[in-house]
Specification:
Elements (H helix, E strand, L loop, with lengths): L8 H31 L10 H28 L1
Helix pairs in contact: 1-2
């Protein structure tokens, strides 16, 4: 492979997009695990109870808000 091809803008753009996808997938996995452990205390049935549903919604919102806040802080530090 031509070493200059490794520095091409198209390849760099592709790699950046793949890194972003990986980060999003990792965040979704962490969010799912954290909120599940916090909100689902018993064996789930065919539907979540209203309290479980509310807890999952609130947990996911807080998780996303904190993640965005952390990203913004790191961006401001650079």
């Amino acid at each position: 492979m031509d070493p200059s091809a490794l520095q091409s803008p198209e390849l760099q753009n592709f790699l950046n997009q793949e890194k972003e996808r990986a980060m999003i997938n990792e965040m979704v996995g962490k969010l799912t695990s954290a909120c599940w452990d916090k909100c689902i205390t018993g064996t789930p049935g065919s539907k979540f109870s209203s309290s479980e549903s509310n807890c999952l919604t609130n947990c996911a919102q807080r998780y996303m808000e904190m993640s965005l806040m952390i990203v913004k802080r790191f961006q401001n530090m650079q």
